[in-house]
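To whoever is on call:

I kicked off a structure prediction for a single chain this morning and the downstream step that reads the tokens threw a length-mismatch warning. I double-checked the sequence; it's 119 residues and nothing unusual in it as far as I can see. Pasting both halves so you can look.
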Amino acid sequence: MPWSGITHQHLLTLMIRLPTDFEPYGERNRDDQFGPDCSCGCKWFAPLEGELSTNWGVCTNPKSPRVGLLTFEHQGCWQFEDDPELEARIEEYRANNPPRLTREELLRRWQEKRGTPGS
């Protein structure tokens, strides 16, 4: 997979910030207007692929002001909905799918297949 240059810092510069987001991304204060954010397992948060999936995704909740937007997991919104089946679905996915190979393992296998010594 070619390097895309997409980093956490790059996405922070691209994301749209709304007043309904938690500070420092919006105007919502966590102390006065507490509520869960996407990182708490919102069923509408669709994570990105790869390394950025632990922090970044797209909101798919039609009731949310963030719907369709690139979203950092701690931006949050009032339309959070818990996914009570999240853990079960994660376990089912892990049971039915082999673990993904790391970049280093993929490169090692590719080099072995080509007969290229490792660096």
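Update from on-call: the warning came from a stale cache, not from the record. Cleared it. Sanity check on the structure: The first helix runs from residue 8 to 14.
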